[in-house]
Amino acid sequence: MKSDGNLKKKIEDYLWIILGSVVTAGAINIFLVPYKIAPGGVTGIATVIFYLIKEYLPVGTIMLILNIPL
Questions:
Q1: d(C-alpha 8, C-alpha 10), whole Å
Q2: HSE-CB for 14 with a 13 A CA cutoff
Q3: Cα separation of 52 and 2, whole Å?
Q4: Using CB atoms within 10 A of its CB, is residue 33 exposed (0-12), middle (13-18) or buried (19+)?
Q5: How many structural domains compose the chain?
Q6: How many Cα atoms occupy the beta-carbon half-sphere of 4 within 13 Å?
Q7: Which residues lie closer than 8 Å to 46 by C-beta, 6 or more apart?
Q8: Cβ–Cβ < 8 Å for 63, 42
Q9: Using alpha carbons only, how large is the chain's radius of gyration in Å?
Q10: Which of 20, 23, 25, 32 lies 20 to 30 A from 14 at CA?
Q11: What is the largest CA-CA distance in the chain?
């Protein structure tokens, strides 16, 4: 019984992580990129690079490339 409750908790945690990721991605694509807002961190650096390379790669791809070495 104990492992069943633990499994439900893990599934719930993963669902919250997925929901948070979807909300973050939506906020980046709805608010930050169209209005050319560059926040701090990797997202801001990716947004600046996105506009410097004339929108050749999507912001998400640039963020992935910048996060791989980390």
A1: 5
A2: 6
A3: 53
A4: buried
A5: 1
A6: 1
A7: 59, 62, 63, 66
A8: yes
A9: 16
A10: 32
A11: 56
CA distances from 67 to 8, 9, 23, 44, 49 (A): 30, 28, 19, 13, 14
8 Å CB contact between 49 and 62: yes
The CA-CA-CA angle for residues 38, 27, 52, to 5°, reads 30
Residue 57 predicted with pLDDT over 80: yes
- Cβ count within 10 A of residue 32: 17
Q: Residue 32 is part of which domain span?
A: 2-67
- Give pLDDT tens digits for 8-27: 999 999 999 999 999 999 99
What digits encode the pLDDT tens for the residues 39-49?
A: 999 999 999 99
